[in-house]
Automatic annotation (TrEMBL):
It comes from Candidatus Segetimicrobium genomatis. The gene is leuB. It is found in: Cytoplasm. GO terms for biological process: L-leucine biosynthetic process. Residues 8-355 form the Isopropylmalate dehydrogenase-like domain. Mg(2+) binds at D227, D251, D255. Catalyzes the oxidation of 3-carboxy-2-hydroxy-4-methylpentanoate (3-isopropylmalate) to 3-carboxy-4-methyl-2-oxopentanoate. The product decarboxylates to 4-methyl-2 oxopentanoate. Binds 1 Mg(2+) or Mn(2+) ion per subunit. This is 3-isopropylmalate dehydrogenase. One of its GO terms (molecular function) is magnesium ion binding. Its EC number is 1.1.1.85. Keywords: Amino-acid biosynthesis, Branched-chain amino acid biosynthesis, Cytoplasm, Leucine biosynthesis, Magnesium, Manganese, Metal-binding, NAD, Oxidoreductase. Pathway: Amino-acid biosynthesis; L-leucine biosynthesis; L-leucine from 3-methyl-2-oxobutanoate: step 3/4.
Length: 360
C-alpha cells in the first residue's frame, strides 16, 4: 500500500460474462494500483442471479453495506435465462435499480469513441465512422424505469400500464452535469434528445434543457428528436459531442452507439451521483450466448476500470495509463472474437494479458 489510507472498491461480478470480464478488470486495476501506489483494496459482494442463488435476494443487505463503506463500486452484469421467470422485484436486474436509487446515481456516462485501430471494426463505412467521439449522458434514476407500473384484468381483458414521470429538478441536474462535462471537452457541444413532438415529459425536458443551456457559458445546447437521433448516429455520428437524454432513450441509443464503434464489448460506463460511491460497469449485459466460453471481450470492463479511477478516485494519470495500454493492444492487432472478423482471435484472459503487457 502507498502513502494514503486503503481505498475500498466493492467488486460485484454478478452473472454470465460479468464474472469473466470483471476478473480481468481487477487484474488490470491491481497492476495500476501497484504502479501508482493507489492503495486499492478489493472486496467482493454478491449481486444479481448469483445473489439470488446464494441468499434468495438480488441485492442482499450485506452487499449494500459493502457499497456504503466503499469509495467506488465495480459491477459486471446481472441477469440471465435462469432467472427470467421471476417476478419483477425478485429478478437479478432489480439489483441495478436498487443500487442506482440508493446511491442517487442520476448521471450515467457512456462514451463511444472510434479509435483509429478499430476503424475497420465499425460496420459503418470508414468515412462515416472516422472521428466519432461522443458521450451519452443517460438519466438513470427517473422516467419509465421508476414510474408506477400496473396490471389489471385477465385473459383478453388484461391490460398493463407503465408511467413516465420526470420533474424539472431531475431534468435540470442531469442536463447540468452534461453541460459541465461538455465544457471540459474540445467541442463544448450538447445535444439534448427527446420526443417533444409527442410526450409531455419531453416538452418539459426541452424547456428545462434550454434554460440550462442558456445558463452555461461556453456550451452550445441544441435539441434533437430521438428517432432522428437514432438515424443520425448511424449516418453522421461525428456530429455528436455530448448527448443528454432520458433513461429509456439513453439505454437504447447507447447500445446503438456501441454498434457504431464496433462492439458492445468496448463500451464502459460510469454512474454518478452527488457523492461517492459511484458505480462503474460495462454497458453490456451477461451475454448468455457466449458466457462460460472464455471469449468475451474484457475491454469494456477494463475501460470501466479507467472510468472508476478518473471519476471515482479522481486519479487521471492511472485512468489514462489504462486507456493508453488498451489503445496500444488494439494498435498491435490484438482482437477478441467480436472484433476479429475472420482473423485470429484472443480469448478473454489473453486480451487482458495483452493490455497488461502494454501498461507503462
Ligand atoms: P447483452 O449485452 O448481454 O448481449 C448482447 C449481444 O452482445 C450478445 O450477442 C452478446 O454476446 C454481445 N456481447 C455483449 N457483451 C459482449 C462482450 N463483452 N464481448 C463480446 N460480445 C459481447 O444483452 P442481452 O443478451 O439483451 O441481455 C442478456 C442479459 O443481460 C439479460 O438478462 C439482461 O437483462 C442482462 N443485462 C444486464 C446488464 C447489466 O447488468 N448492466 C446490461 C444489459 C443486459
Ligand atoms: C443497462 C441495462 C439495464 C437497463 C437492464 C439490465 C435493466 O440494459 O444498464 O443498460 O436497462 O438499464
Ligand atoms: Mn442497456
Amino acid at each position: 500500500m502507498g502513502a494514503g489510507r486503503a481505498r475500498r472498491i466493492a467488486v460485484m461480478p454478478g452473472d454470465g460474462i460479468g464474472r469473466e470480464v470483471i476478473a480481468e478488470a481487477v487484474r488490470v486495476l491491481s497492476a495500476v494500483d501497484r504502479r501508482y501506489e493507489l492503495g486499492l483494496e478489493f472486496e467482493e459482494g454478491l449481486v444479481g442471479g448469483a445473489a439470488i442463488d446464494a441468499t434468495g435476494h438480488p441485492i442482499p443487505e450485506q452487499t449494500l453495506a459493502l457499497c456504503r463503506r466503499s469509495e467506488a463500486i465495480l459491477l459486471g452484469a446481472c441477469g440471465g435465462p435462469k432467472w427470467d421467470a421471476l417476478p419483477r422485484e425478485r429478478r437479478p436486474e432489480q439489483a441495478l435499480f436498487t443500487l442506482r436509487k440508493t446511491f442517487g446515481l442520476y448521471a450515467n456516462l457512456r462514451p463511444a469513441t472510434v479509435s483509429s485501430p478499430l476503424l475497420t471494426a465499425s460496420p459503418l463505412r470508414r468515412e462515416v465512422a472516422e472521428g466519432t467521439d461522443l458521450l451519452i449522458v443517460r438519466e438513470l434514476t427517473g422516467g419509465l424505469y421508476f414510474g408506477a407500473q400496473s396490471r389489471t384484468g385477465r385473459g383478453q381483458e388484461t391490460a398493463a400500464v407503465d408511467t413516465l414521470p420526470y420533474s424539472a429538478a431531475e431534468i435540470r441536474r442531469v442536463v447540468r452535469k452534461a453541460c459541465e462535462i461538455a465544457r471540459g471537452r474540445p467541442r463544448h457541444k450538447v445535444t439534448s434528445v427527446d420526443k417533444a413532438n409527442v410526450l409531455e415529459t419531453s416538452r418539459l425536458w426541452r424547456e428545462v434543457a434550454t434554460e440550462v443551456g442558456r445558463e452555461t457559458p461556453g456550451v452550445t445546447l441544441d435539441h434533437m428528436l430521438v428517432d432522428n437521433c437514432a438515424l443520425q448516429l448511424v449516418t453522421n455520428p461525428r456530429q455528436f459531442d455530448v448527448i443528454v437524454t432520458d433513461n429509456m432513450f439513453g439505454d437504447i441509443l447507447s447500445d446503438e452507439a456501441a454498434g457504431v464503434i464496433g462492439s458492445l464489448g468496448l463500451m464502459p460506463s460510469a454512474s454518478l451521483g452527488e457523492q461517492p460511491p459511484g458505480l462503474f460497469e460495462p454497458v453490456h449485459g451477461t451475454a448468455p450466448d457466449i458466457a462460460g466460453k472464455g471469449i468475451a471481450n474484457p475491454l469494456a470492463a477494463i475501460l470501466t476500470g479507467a472510468l472508476l479511477l478518473r471519476y471515482g478516485l479522481d486519479h487521471e494519470p492511472a485512468a489514462a495509463a489504462i486507456e493508453a495500454a488498451v489503445h496500444r493492444a488494439l494498435q498491435d492487432g490484438c482482437r477478441t472474437a467480436d472484433l476479429a472478423g475472420k482473423g485470429p482471435a484472443l480469448g478473454t484472459a489473453a486480451m487482458a494479458d495483452a493490455v497488461l503487457a502494454r501498461l507503462h
